[in-house]
Amino acid sequence: MTTHGETAATSTLDAHMHRACSLQEGIAEFYDQSSGLWEDIWGDHMHHGFYDPDSNVSGSDHPAAQIRMIEESLRFAGITDDPAKQPKTIVDVGCGIGGSSRYLARKFGAECRGITLSPVQAGRANVLAKYEGLADKAYVSFQVADALKQPFPDGQFDLVWSMESGEHMPDKAKFVNELARVAAPGGTIIIVTWCHRDLGPSEEDLEPWEKKLLNRICNAYYLPEWCSTSDYVKLLQSLSLQDIKAADWSERVAPFWPAVICSAFTWKGFISLLRSGLKAIKGALVMPLMIQGYQKGVIKFAIITCRKPE
C-alpha cells in the first residue's frame, strides 16, 4: 500500500527529473542553434578571453585573449611545460565545438575526449578534428554525453577540463563528483565557470534584485540555480581533493561581453543571428545583463583547480 508521504515524494522526484530533462533539452537546442553563429563571428573557442585590465583592447586581440584564457588556466593549476609532468589523457567536459580540446591535444600531444549535450556541437567538433588531422591519429574525438553521467571509467584522465560548462549543471555536487571520479590519481581538475558572489557572514541568500537579475540570465541561457565560488571549494574539500585553489578573474574578462555585443551588431553578426533562431536571439538580448552583473559585483568569473590524491 502506498502512503500519502510516499506518493508526495514520488511526485517531487518526478517533477525534479522532468525539470532536469527539460533543462538538458533546452541546453542542447540552444547550442544546436547558436554554435554556428558563434563560430562564424568568433571562431572555435566558445569562452571568455583573458585580458590585461590596464591595456587598450583592439578587435584583433579577442582571439588571442581566448588562447590566453587557456594558458592562464593551465598556469594557475600548476601545469608546466615540463614534458614529464604534462597530461597525456584529457577530458573536455562541455566541449563546445572542440576548440579547447584540439588546442590542448596539440600542445601536449595528448589523447582528448570531449563531451557535450549538443549533437550539432559534437558533429562539428569531430569534423574540425578530422580537418586538422587530429582525428586520424585516433586521439581526439567528441560525443554527446551528460556531464553528470560521464561515459568513462574511473580514473581515466590526467587532466579534467571544464571551461564554462559548470554554470549549466543542475546538480553541482554530482558534477564535481563526476569530475573527481574520472580524474586519474594525481590528476588535475580545472573548473572555469560563472558564479554569483560569495555571501557575507551574516547573509543567508542574495538580495532579491540580484536573484531577479540572475534569473533573467538563466531563462535565456538555460542555466539552473547559480552557486558561489566558495560553494565549489566546499564541494571539492568534501571529496578530500588536494591543492584546492580559487580566484576571481572578473576584471580579467571585463572587455569580453562588450565585444560580443558589438560583434552581434555588425552586418555579418546581425544576419547570422537572424538565421540562428529564436533561442540565439533571446540569448543576444540579455547580453547587457551579463555586463550589468559583472559591474554590480553579482556575477563572478571564477577559476577553481585541484588535484586528485595519488
UniProtKB/TrEMBL annotation:
Gene3D superfamilies per the UniProt record, alphabetical: Vaccinia Virus protein VP39
Keywords in alphabetical order: Methyltransferase, S-adenosyl-L-methionine, Transferase
MF terms in GO: S-adenosylmethionine-dependent methyltransferase activity
CDD domains: AdoMet_MTases
One Pfam family here: Methyltransf_11
SUPFAM superfamilies referenced in this protein's UniProt entry, alphabetically: S-adenosyl-L-methionine-dependent methyltransferases
Entry's Gene Ontology BP terms: methylation
Residue stretches making up the Methyltransferase type domain: 91-191
Start and end residues of each stretch annotated as SAM motif I: 90-99
Region SAM motif II, annotated ranges: 155-163
Residue numbers spanned by region SAM motif III: 182-191
Keyword Methyltransferase listed: yes
Domain of life per record: Eukaryota
The keyword ATP-binding belongs to this UniProt entry's keyword annotation: no
Family label: Belongs to the class I-like SAM-binding methyltransferase superfamily. gTMT family.
Protein name (Swiss-Prot/TrEMBL): Methyltransferase type 11 domain-containing protein
